[in-house]
């Protein structure tokens, strides 16, 4: 029972956990329960994977990287060897699809591990206040100041 709640003495690197599609905390439990569906929690250390939300980041990076690689290779091959067009179609499209499918899972696992290591999450405001109130600096959270042009702000708020 204690193995489910006690973190291991050393965690794997995010790259190692990602490439092996394993839990970012213990490096042993499986991260996925389907091809790209994350498990609810680690079966070994009990880490709750609800923090993980890489969104479309893995798809973007994978399609961009694989496309640059495959299209570059195809362009070089087409110029140097001038293969028939049917062979180009027969080779390039499966290479694009297969390449993306091959690296999508480890890249998603790696991004989840990076989220875990850096405790990354969705950004949020502490207090939005009313419309026109609040803002990017705590000094401007007064409606009296915000509604004035900066030249008329009190001296204690004005910045150099
Ligand atoms: Zn784990």
Tally the beta strands.
Answer: 0
Distance between the termini: 59 Å
Task: Tell me the radius of gyration.
Answer: 25 Å
Into which percentage range does the β-strand content fall?
under 5%
Give the SSE string: HHHHH
What does this structure look like?
With 160 residues, this protein is mostly helical. It has a domain of 108 residues. Helix content is 46%, strand content 0%. The radius of gyration is 25 Å and the shape is flat. Helix 3 packs antiparallel against helix 4. The N terminus is likely disordered.
Task: Please tag this protein with its features.
single chain, 160 residues, mainly alpha, flat, binds zinc ion
Topology, element by element:
Layout: H1 2-5, H2 14-19, H3 57-81, H4 85-118, H5 143-146
Helix pairs in contact: 3-4
Bound molecules: zinc ion (ZN).
Summarize the structure.
By secondary structure, this protein is mainly alpha-helical.
